[in-house]
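Support case: manganese (II) ion complex. Customer-provided input:
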Amino acid sequence: MTDYAIAPPPLTALPIAGSNALFPVRRVYCIGRNYAAHAIEMGHDPDREPPFFFQKNPDNLVTDGVFPYPPKTADVHHEVELAVMLKSGGRNIQVHDASTHIYGYALALDMTRRDLQGDMKKAGRPWEIGKAFEASAPVGPVHPVSATGLLSEGAVTLHVNGELRQEGDLNQLIWKVPEMISYLSEYFELAPGDVILSGTPAGVGPVVRGDVMEIAIAGLGSMSVRVA
Ligand code: MN
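Agent response - structure generated as follows:
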């Protein structure tokens, strides 16, 4: 038996719809500005530029439907996103092969301390304090691609307290899921357990304690997350 100096940290593992097995998480990649209307609302050109990525931590993923309002911010925004779970990986994956690496999909939120992210953008500094904090990525159960088929279109919505705030369609992704996987694999060695958040449609905005966010993607059902 391995002798660890301290107790090893727990592995993040996500429930799988229709199964008692869990999906173990290795890394979490997030793509920025992947819907034209959201790029415009954030003050950027919607033209197809090379994608860019940042990371969250595996233990930032939470599945209990609760988002504790984080410290050091007064402007936490919701971003509803399709999460893509990989069952295999590699380097320099071709676009036409990329979908064979997908295990499944889940509903996800890329919660963002927008004020801190904005400060970091202005200063040319990394985004972690705006993006990669505790419970910053509420997710739903993983839906295996064997049940959903490959997702390339379908409505993406987010309501806050019953009011529609974000609305888009997976067919509006600037960089499609296979392109994202291929592009990422040129920079990183992808592996089983990796999760990719695919970007958010327009309509991002703040939440406050007590709000209930309801997120939905066609084919993946819906999920509510309460701001605590
Ligand atoms: Mn995002």
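DSSP finds six helices and 18 strands in the chain.

Case will auto-close in a few days if no follow-up is received.
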